[in-house]
Specification:
By secondary structure, the chain is of the alpha/beta class. The protein has 2 domains: 203 residues, 3-Layer(aba) Sandwich (Rossmann fold), CATH 3.40.50.720; 94 residues, UDP-galactose 4-epimerase, domain 1. The chain is built from 12 helices and 12 strands. The strands form 3 sheets. It has a 7-stranded parallel sheet with strand order 3-2-1-4-5-6-10, sandwiched between helices. Strand 1, helix 1 and strand 2 form a beta-alpha-beta unit. Helix 4 runs parallel beside helix 5. The protein is globular. The protein starts with a strand and ends with a helix. The structure holds nicotinamide-adenine-dinucleotide.
Length: 336
């Protein structure tokens, strides 16, 4: 990045948007932040920042993000969205926010970049939910994405546009297919995968929670494998995404599956027990939810990380236990 970088984050009031803004404040190349969300986001201390409340399904509000006193952003992190279960249950809203509003921001970025002659870097958070149906044992960059849910379909449609806008030089796109991020702090999200965090987070906070997979600690359903990454590694990779030269990406696509690790729901619970003892497990109830199980088990759980690692992206080391330990420290410090 140049010495003076104006960075726009959409969805800046959300989990990853807030964590990204905090990380960017500590990054010396950040000069100004433009933080946008449908709910006015908080501005962090330590950097010039503007908070904008905007509904990005409205094109004129999306255009406004490129007309602030800071000028046209050099980097756009496009993070706003409706999560997987929300998009599945309210199809029209999911389509509007996860596709129409991404297209609106892309078009604003395209027009602004055409005026300055500098196409903004456009970093988009896609998801492993673009995959579904019959899949190979290990997903590779050649695996065709055939989503089996509204959220994955919307993400894939955005990816197609971002690749095309990049090919035409309207923007400089970087599409990050994220694993499920665990442990997510705060209240449960409207994501089908939300329980993967809740079964760690809530017991560590001394709160009862329901695991929607299986009916007891010995259920075979707990062998469901998932593909995850920690928030810390993910945010580190978000910063890297803006630094990788566009020439480093494979010529025909800007898609990268960010590195992750495979864990089963049972392994998550074993890590919880190792870090917080048997009493943490006693705070769990089980109630199998068929819709949840169907969607999560349609997602792939094993990926070939080598392309992402060759670009410089990082992977969590040491499995689930360090992730749970890290979150426990945050809980003990009153930060989660
Ligand atoms: N967290 C994960 O495990 C995960 C995994 C894969 C992909 N992703 C993607 O990463 C991105 C960030 O995820 P997150 O976990 O921070 O989600 P989040 O739900 O915490 O944040 C999304 C934000 O988007 C905002 N938003 C919704 N509609 C809007 C609109 N019309 N205009 C402006 N803002 C609007 C919400 O208010 C919210 O603050 C999303 O695009 C998500 O799909 C997340």
């Amino acid at each position: 990045m140049s010495d003076r970088t104006v960075i726009l984050i959409t969805g800046a009031g959300g989990f990853l948007g807030r964590a990204l803004a905090e990380a960017l404040v500590k990054d010396p190349s950040t000069s100004h932040l433009v933080l946008v969300d449908i709910v006015e986001p908080k501005t962090p201390h330590g950097v010039d920042a503007i908070a904008i409340k905007a509904d990005l399904t409205d094109q004129s509000q999306a255009d406004g993000l490129f007309q602030t006193p800071y000028g046209v952003p050099d980097v756009v992190y496009c993070l706003h969205g409706i999560m997987s279960r929300g998009a599945e249950d309210n199809f029209d809203l999911g389509l509007k926010v996860n596709f129409d509003a991404v297209r609106a921001v892309l078009d604003s970025a395209r027009r602004a970049g055409a005026k300055t002659g500098r196409p903004p870097k456009f970093i988009f958070t896609s998801s492993l939910a673009v995959y579904g149906g019959p899949l190979p044992e290990v997903v590779t960059p050649d695996t065709i994405a055939t989503p089996q849910g509204a959220y994955g379909a919307e993400k894939l449609m955005c990816e197609v546009l971002i690749n095309e806008y990049s090919r035409r030089g309207f923007i400089d796109g970087r599409i990050l297919r994220l694993p499920t991020i665990v442990v997510r702090p705060g209240p449960p999200a409207a994501a089908t995968s939300s329980f993967l965090s809740a079964i760690i987070r809530e017991p560590l906070k001394g709160v009862r929670t329901t695991c929607p997979i299986g009916n007891s600690l010995s259920s075979p359903e707990l062998d469901l494998a998932v593909w995850i990454a920690s928030p810390e590694t993910t945010i580190h990779n978000f910063l890297l995404a803006a630094r990788i030269p566009s020439s480093s990406f494979t010529s025909h696509t800007r898609v990268v599956c960010l590195p992750g690790i495979t864990v089963t729901v049972r392994e998550e619970l074993q890590a919880l027990e190792e870090v917080a003892g048997k009493e943490a497990l006693e705070l769990l109830e089980f109630q199998n939810d068929e819709t949840n199980h169907r969607i999560v088990s349609s997602w792939p759980a094993r990926f070939d990380n080598s392309y992402a690692l060759s670009l410089g992206f990082q992977v969590d080391k040491g499995g689930m236990v360090p992730i749970v330990e890290h979150f426990k420290k945050a809980v003990d410090a009153g930060l989660a």
